[in-house]
Specification:
384 residues; alpha+beta; 2 domains; 8-stranded mixed sheet; 12 helices
Length: 384
């Protein structure tokens, strides 16, 4: 079997065999499971830990688990975590330094052997987010070697989207519920009168080699047709959408918009949106030392443009107001990200909407900016 081989079908036992084969190969399998009232990512030792029979109810500032009658494993929208937590962890040691007996300082880079992850259940929006972070963290002059090492060894198993949530808007960011290239295996869950099964496609040689080891059968036309129809139908059930305008142009023309004051009155600048965002990548560094001063370590940790100290220069922060910090985040994500990385910084996963404690909705804010621009440029309206 090669990466271009015909699609195959796995049943639930085949999914168990998939996890077992990955574990036997020395990989740490990570996938969705239910814990603390949410679907979260965790290490899996068996496919039985997947959230069979669970879905989610989403709205701005609202997340609830709901029971499903069909027993589906992947019929839920993205949870509060993304794979960024594993590939670009929240805290990572960079190096240490020790004072030697003769008074010199010896620096030791931290070079751990990166884990060999297998990510099971990667959403298409998160697959796009991984591709964006690949470009940000390994595509420039200064590669993040820690990220690069973990990413090179990661095995990606996508679960195509069949149940978009009320806060999903991937279509309007150029994505969709189907998997883009870049995966090792892609699963499409099918549940109908013929049973519960998974259409599987190999996207790489190592994916094809693994599939060959699993109990499977060649995909039948009915399963393929049902899988395609289910994913296609999901395109029409997105709960949100960005306005169909040139977002780079809109954000550049809206720097002085009054809407920023409106959102600033609601924004807590808590940074939740940047923590749950699968593409936000900003970090800072901090040093820690022992009481003797003979040993010190430098750690990298996540930071956020919503943090007042994030833009602190001599004399104070560059963006002291919530208005300035929210505007920086949104204009960078949708506009100037293109200038840096030739891509948008948003994949439409909707996490920032769901997990905002005051329910700020990025699609609503962009639509309001578009409406304000239209009002100011309408015929007969004076503009600066």
């Amino acid at each position: 079997m090669t990466a271009t081989a015909a699609p195959a079908v796995l049943d639930r036992d085949g999914l168990d065999a998939l996890v077992a084969a990955l574990t036997a190969a020395g990989r740490t399998v990570v996938g969705p499971t239910v814990r603390d009232g949410a679907i979260v990512l965790a290490e899996l030792t068996t496919a039985d830990a997947l959230p069979y029979g669970w879905g989610v109810e989403l709205e701005a500032g609202h997340y609830r688990l709901v029971r499903r009658e069909d027993g589906a494993a992947f019929a839920h929208s993205a949870g509060p975590q993304s794979w960024k937590s594993y590939l670009h962890p929240a805290r990572e040691k960079l190096w240490s330094a020790d004072r030697t007996a003769d008074g010199d300082i010896r620096f030791t880079p931290h070079e751990p052997d990166p884990p060999s992850y297998a990510f099971l259940g990667v959403r298409p929006c998160d697959l796009r987010a991984i591709a964006i972070q690949d470009q940000v963290l390994t595509g420039g002059r200064y590669e993040d070697s820690g990220y690069g090492g973990r990413r090179a060894k990661a095995f990606l198993i996508v679960a195509e989207c069949t149940e978009p949530g009320a806060t999903c808007f991937c279509i309007s960011t150029g994505g969709g519920p189907a998997a883009d290239p870049g995966y090792d295996l892609a699963l499409t869950e099918v549940i109908d009168e013929a049973g519960h099964r998974f259409l599987v496609r190999a996207g790489s040689e190592r994916g094809a080699e693994l599939l060959e080891q699993l109990p499977h059968r060649t995909a039948d036309p009915d399963t393929e047709a049902t899988a395609r129809a289910t994913v296609d139908a999901a395109r029409d059930r997105m709960g949100r959408a960005l306005p169909p305008v040139d977002l780079r142009d809109l954000m550049g023309a809206s720097l002085d918009a009054e809407r920023w004051d409106d959102v600033a009155a609601r924004c807590l600048t808590c940074g939740n949106c940047t923590m749950v965002c699968p593409t936000c990548f900003c970090t800072t560094t901090e040093e820690i030392t022992d009481l003797t001063g003979d040993h010190t370590e430098r750690w990298q940790r996540w930071d956020s443009c919503f943090d007042l100290d994030f833009s602190h220069l001599h004399g104070g922060p560059v963006r002291p107001s919530p208005r300035g910090r929210y505007r920086q985040w949104l204009t960078h994500k949708l506009s100037t990200w293109h200038d840096q990385f030739d891509t948008t910084g948003c994949v439409g996963c909707g996490r920032c909407i769901t997990w905002c404690p005051v329910g700020i909705d990025i699609t609503e804010e962009v639509a309001a900016l578009d409406a304000e621009r239209a009002e100011h440029t309408a015929p007969g309206t004076e503009t600066d």
